[in-house]
Amino acid sequence: MPAVRTLLLVGVDPFRDRLWDTGYRGMTEDGQYYGFSLALGSAEVTLLEQADAYRSLANGGRWSPLRLTADAPLAATRKVTTPQAAGIVADMMADPNARAATFGLDSALRLPFWAAVKTGTSKAMRDNWCIGFSDRYTVAVWVGNLEGDPMRAVSGTSGAAPVWRDLMLALNADRKVTAPPRPAGIEQRAIRFANHVEQPRLEYFLAGTAQTEIASAPQAARRPRITNPVAGSVYAIDPDIPPDRQRLAIGVSGEVTAHRLLLDRRDLGAADSQPQVLAAPGQHRLRLVDVGGHVVDQVLFTVR
């Protein structure tokens, strides 16, 4: 999972300290207390903390305490991330094509003007979040039961997002919304994928880091093995996403023309057919077998 991999590279304690600097003052424990699940949002935070953190992205990486009244004094801002990092993250959150595979192109998250947005749902559907910003307004919406009871089949997309959309439309009804200017130090490059596995497109990069062509090593140069899922992986079913869009894509590498995939006792067919499966909650064993029926690789993974 990219978020967890990033946390492995950065370190839990530095990441926790960065969150503290970004106003999450309820996080009083050290990084080891939260562990790597911190990348997936395991810490308890408030709606105001979330809103202010997203506001720092809207302000180019500069954070300041929220004011609850218009006549409250303005506090000094401080840098919590670079303008370049904030700009690239905002562009990701504002890109309807980036979330089309999950939410479709016509969801409550799509507005008739530029806006960056993210939804979330806590464990057992107790909390729905939808937080985002235009060039002037940051709006954060929480939906849930005040007693903390779980809701029934209500996710951030179906619960909080429609409220967020209505508020954003009302706030920006009589003004022209423009996308924020691109910070210096960011460059746009066209990228393409070998074998046309994805459509060519334009992407933003930190200056000097652009990769314009993405290709895999030749299959014949790799030994037959399962590349996805990784052994020991734990997958959580996301209530924000329709079940049919949460299929697990099975990945293999190497010359596997005559190999087959077996999930538990189910034959998934040819290993090079790129199957996608809906796995039920529980522990599963995925095996890669050759033409003689010998297991050449296997992984265990869990779905929750």
TrEMBL record:
<dbReference type="InterPro" id="IPR050396">
    <property type="entry name" value="Glycosyltr_51/Transpeptidase"/>
</dbReference>
<dbReference type="InterPro" id="IPR009647">
    <property type="entry name" value="PBP_C"/>
</dbReference>
<dbReference type="InterPro" id="IPR012338">
    <property type="entry name" value="Beta-lactam/transpept-like"/>
</dbReference>
<dbReference type="GO" id="GO:0008658">
    <property type="term" value="F:penicillin binding"/>
</dbReference>
<feature type="domain" description="Penicillin-binding protein transpeptidase">
    <location>
        <begin position="37"/>
        <end position="168"/>
    </location>
</feature>
<dbReference type="GO" id="GO:0009252">
    <property type="term" value="P:peptidoglycan biosynthetic process"/>
</dbReference>
<feature type="domain" description="Penicillin-binding C-terminal">
    <location>
        <begin position="216"/>
        <end position="299"/>
    </location>
</feature>
<keyword id="KW-0328">Glycosyltransferase</keyword>
<protein>
    <submittedName>
        <fullName>Multimodular transpeptidase-transglycosylase</fullName>
        <ecNumber>2.4.1.129</ecNumber>
    </submittedName>
</protein>
<dbReference type="GO" id="GO:0008955">
    <property type="term" value="F:peptidoglycan glycosyltransferase activity"/>
</dbReference>
<dbReference type="InterPro" id="IPR001460">
    <property type="entry name" value="PCN-bd_Tpept"/>
</dbReference>
<dbReference type="Pfam" id="PF00905">
    <property type="entry name" value="Transpeptidase"/>
</dbReference>
<dbReference type="GO" id="GO:0030288">
    <property type="term" value="C:outer membrane-bounded periplasmic space"/>
</dbReference>
<dbReference type="Pfam" id="PF06832">
    <property type="entry name" value="BiPBP_C"/>
</dbReference>
<keyword id="KW-0808">Transferase</keyword>
